[in-house]
Design goal:
There is one protein chain. α2 (137-149) crosses α10 (322-333) and α5 packs antiparallel against α6. The longest helix is centred in the N-terminal third of the chain and has 30 residues, at 8-37. The strands form three sheets. The chain has a six-stranded mixed sheet. A five-stranded mixed barrel has the order 1-2-3-5-4. It has a two-stranded antiparallel ribbon with strand order 6-7. The chain is α/β, with parallel strands linked by helices. The protein folds into three domains: 8-99, OB fold (Dihydrolipoamide Acetyltransferase, E2P); 122-270, Rossmann fold, CATH 3.40.50.300; 279-333, Probable gtpase engc, domain 3 (Ribonucleotide Reductase Protein R1, domain 1), CATH 1.10.40. Helix content is 34%, strand content 22%. The structure holds guanosine-5'-triphosphate, magnesium ion and zinc ion. Residues 219-220, 239 line the site of magnesium ion.
């Protein structure tokens, strides 16, 4: 921070912005208070944010009823997946009283490059891959690192297994095994041939999850196959507007799968990726590196040309795969 003194005019502008901010918050609270004074509100209960519309949010109660809610001024910015305390009112409206602490949060840079939280309390990041388009190890590792650093459990899901044949089956089995060896859960299915979908739905039962992965691997197809018809329609509307036109919405919504998995989805989420700036932070995102970090000769070891590198030793001993070390180096180079 620079210590230069603010001019009177600058100070005046800062004060003005601050006052406007307070006024806005008070106004928001007054609307909520006016509503509350009108009586007819039920007692406090727990709920989940399932969608976000400007200054309002949609809350779901324990029996899946949805209410449009206003926020009390002291309630911080909420995102889909947030757990809240709220009070139901007449005509499916309500008031948010408080936010529960988040177990996890998913974030991505907005158009100006500012990191924004887009979803909360996500249990699984499902990294979708397929025989076609061919998977990219570096891309998978990017997602794995992002999930690791967000402290959300990733699952590698191989879709389109109907496309496996004698020519490529072994390669994909080896690929999947390489992630299992690191300790990641994996799963196989086919969205269009309805293979493994019931089992996948059972796996995510009661948990919230997001799909990520490169274009064409079948994320939308999976969404459509897992959701009841009416809500699948709704995700289609959201996803097909991706990046285009004025009707674009990148707001994440929460949908229930047939077996009560909670899919949080939006084009923005599917593009969720890595935003780290330091090599050391990146290294912590490689799960099997963690036990070896801090044992290199140099504190700031890049695990590249340095002598006495614990990561390289682990590669030589077969504890870390060379492919993962190469991924790490490529990601560092791209920082
Ligand atoms: N053979 C086969 N094709 C599939 C399967 N799942 C999806 N597809 C096809 O793969 C193509 C791409 O699927 P999408 O669901 O649009 O892929 P996506 O990941 O949503 O792609 P983006 O929206 O571009 O990110 C479509 O033609 C699907 O019909 C599958 O299990 N088997
Ligand atoms: Mg899609
Ligand atoms: Zn090292």
């Amino acid at each position: 921070m620079s210590k230069r003194r603010l001019t009177r005019q600058q100070q005046w502008r800062i004060d003005k912005v601050q006052q406007e901010r307070i006024a806005r918050a008070q106004k928001k609270d007054k609307t909520a208070d006016t509503l509350l004074e009108s009586g007819e509100f039920g007692s406090e209960q727990d709920g989940t944010i399932v969608a976000h519309y400007g200054t309002q949010v949609e809350v779901e109660d324990a029996s899946y009823q949805r209410y449009r809610c206003l926020l009390r001024a002291n309630v911080p910015q909420l995102v889909t997946g947030d757990r809240v305390v709220w009070r139901p009112g007449p005509n499916n409206i309500g008031i948010i009283e408080a936010q529960y602490p988040r177990r996890s949060s998913l974030s991505r840079p907005d158009m100006r490059g500012k990191i924004k939280t887009v979803a909360a309390n996500v249990d699984y990041i499902i990294i979708v891959i397929a025989p076609l388009p061919a998977p990219s190890s570096i891309l998978i590792d990017r997602y794995l690192v992002a999930a690791e650093l967000a402290d959300i459990e990733p699952i590698v899901l191989l879709n389109k297994i109907d496309l496996l044949d004698d020519n490529n089956r072994d390669d994909f089995e080896r690929l999947i095994e390489s992630y299992q060896q690191i300790g990641y859960k994996t799963f196989t299915c086919s969205a269009t041939h309805a293979i493994g979908l019931t089992e996948f739905d059972a796996l995510v039962h009661e948990h919230s999850f997001v799909f990520v992965g490169q274009s064409g691997v079948g994320k939308s197809s999976l969404v459509n196959a897992l959701l009841p018809d009416d809500s699948a329609q709704e995700t289609r509307e959201v996803s097909e507007s991706s990046g285009l036109g004025v009707h674009t919405t990148t707001t994440a919504k929460l949908f229930h799968t047939m077996n009560n998995g909670k899919l949080i989805d939006s084009p923005g989420i599917r593009e969720f990726s890595l935003h780290v700036t330091e090599a050391q932070q990146l290294a912590r995102g490689f799960r099997e590196f963690q036990a070896h970090l801090g044992h290199c000769r140099f504190n700031d070891c890049k695990h590249d040309k340095e002598p006495k590198c614990a990561i390289k030793t682990a590669v030589e001993e077969g504890k870390i795969s060379l492919q993962r070390l190469q991924s790490y180096r490529k990601l560092v180079a791209a920082l």
